[in-house]
Amino acid sequence: MVQRFALPWPRSLQGQLMLSIGLALLLAQGLSAALRWRAQEDRREAAAVHVAAMRLVSPDHDAAIDPPLPGLPGHGAAGRAHRMRGARIDFSSTSPIRAGEVRLTEAEDELQRTLRDQLEFSEVIVVRRATQTDPRAIELVNRRAQRLARIGKPLPPTVLLATIHTSDPQGWLTVRVPEPQLDRSFIIGLVTQTLLIFALLTGATWLIVRKITKPLAALTSRIERFAAKQDAAGPLEPRGPDDLRRLIGAHNAMEARLSAMLDEKDVMLGAIGHDLKTPLAALRVRIESVEDEAERGKMARTIEDITRSLDDILSLARVGRPSDPLEPADLGALVAQVAEEFEDMGEPVTFIPAAGRIVLPLRATWLRRAVRNLTVNALRYGHTARIGLTREADRAVISIADDGPGIPPGQLAAMLEPFTRGDPSRNSETGGAGLGLTLARAIADQHGGTLRLINRTAPGGQVTGLTASLSLPLI
Q1: Would the pTM of this model clear 0.90, i.e. be above it?
Q2: Mean pLDDT of all residues in 327-333
């Protein structure tokens, strides 16, 4: 399998902004470097063309620079030709251009404009040639180095070869001009400029973004806290730019409204619980006067079912805003207490504790209720309950397994929703209002955990039971 390499990308707003600015600066500096490089190349080429034009127009000046060899005449046409050969100008009857060499059209146009009023010619050719491949160029460069006391210096990599076709019998007049190497200070200056601009931009960006993200981080923490506890701690002070201040102000208003609605809900639920439980208790007393014992028993069971469903509904409504704080508790001892309750009632419940103690900040009353609800479901539908407690990486897992028919895979998620019950064939005589699993999931969420329902299968694919896994974080 081919593994793809993913480039690290910062996840914070500050990191992404600074990386974006860095990439934009890199792109801008790259374009600037390319343009400056091109401009410097053009300047180097133009300078070489002008030197070539000067040598073609003023051969005697070159001869003064590079005197003729001893024994050669110094005057007349022949002497002029010898002086030109002794300098840096060559005559030839054929073009010195080699096959495959690329003509520099812009340089040719520039040279033609320069020589138009100075010399008569029919054609101008300019090419770039590697110095090492041209013996004449090597000779000229060495002579110049000897004259300037620069012996041992490296040869320039290229020479600009300019040739014109004249009316002279020999036809082609050629000069070679070494092209200067790229100035290293150009690269050093470009790198220094890039680093300086990057330091200034990233420093300013860091200060600005930090000022923006600080109140944004406070707002994020506040939202996370309210989402976890549904408890408002007073309005958050608006800070930062106007847009962020408006956002914080809108959050304060929304949080205050939600908190007021939750408080109103708690008051309403308390009133409903009181108003309904009181007449239910009165009915429970009145049915004692019913002479038919079977009818009286049915009425009593109906009242108990209504009372139990009412308790589940009120508990589910209040689980999101628990009044009791988190306190350190031994999770193994807590689950063992629940298992002992069922064992004392003669129910087939077994408990397998973890290898060591697991101490967590818990709301013990709520967590007992979650484990109790899951155990009741296991006994109701699977007739047995095997409770286990294990430590898996950074989580503590409470598992309740039964030997029942399981739940169809398409209904596993739906069973955790309120008022959802399994197929009637799984429980033809008894069953609650469909809030037990929902309440257990809400309690798991209250502790930062999760609740999952998993069908166990035999090697042949047959379902052998259901496991409810309640996972809680250890930290």
Answers
A1: no
A2: 91
